[in-house]
Amino acid sequence: MTKIDFDQYAGQYQALLSAQTRFFDSDSDYFARYKVDRVKQQVDKVDAALDFGCGIGRSMPALRAAFPSADIAGCDPSADSLAIARRENPQCRFFTLEELAAEPRFDLVLASCVFHHIAPPERQEALRYCFNCLKPGGRFVIFEHNPFNPVTRHLVNTCPFDADAVLLSMRETIDRMREVQFTIAGTAYCLFFPSALAALRPLENVMGWLPLGGQYFVCGARA
User: Which tens digits make up the pLDDT trace of 121-157?
Assistant: First the structure.
């Protein structure tokens, strides 16, 4: 399987993503806002936050709004994506993985739909990096596609920048996180209702046990 070079997609990433997700919500920023809202339920005070695999920085406005006084940073291996992220989010800091040493400086590390692009043999190393970036008591929140949702699988199978995707179940994610000494602090399936059923979206807070959502999240704590 050929690994996707996100430099090739950086300039068109937003348009491609909007086309893929328009059926669920025409506002492509909804997903970033939604996820950060879920993250806020899992954390206390955040002085510094890292978006691991930030891409073009789509989560940055939501993170800045949620944690207005925090130091917000992003890291990504794609130099072209980081260039866009820096231009669009001058109030945040951005790094390559080589530039950002894995030192305990963040209260929150977010990884939004990143790990399915990481080859399974390399996932533990990436999780250890995220763990080592956290201060004691910090939280790591990972969102991933739910492989049990047929619509999600179709979207992944037809998305050009998901050609290298290997989906991971919530169980795999939990087991891998525990292996690097995360304490699991919260889990839920999410993103059940498209905008046409927006009136039902408040029900998601009590449906997290149901493995039918388009994605899921796992929150881990560093002791």
Answer: 999 999 999 999 999 999 999 999 999 999 999 999 9
Placement of tokens 């996180």 in the chain? 177
Half-sphere exposure of 213 (CA within 13 A, CB side): 23
pTM of the model: 0.95
> For 26-61, what is each residue's pLDDT tens digit?
998 999 999 999 999 999 899 999 999 999 999 999
Residue in the structure block whose two tokens are 């919500």: 25
Contacts 24+ apart (CB under 8 A), 39-47: 39/66, 39/108, 39/110, 39/139, 39/141, 40/66, 41/186, 42/139, 42/141, 42/185, 42/186, 42/219, 43/107, 43/108, 43/139, 43/141, 45/107, 46/70, 46/107, 46/108, 47/71, 47/107
DSSP-assigned letter for residue 3: P
DSSP 1: -
Please give the average per-residue pLDDT across 90-101, as a whole number: 95
Q: SS3 for 185?
A: strand
pLDDT above 90: residue 17: no
Tally of CB atoms within 10 A around 47? 13
- Find how far residue 128's CA is from the centre of its chain: 16
Q: Can you read off the two tokens belonging to residue 91?
A: 């109030």
Element housing 129 (H / E): helix 123-133
Query: Coil, helix or strand for 122?
Result: helix
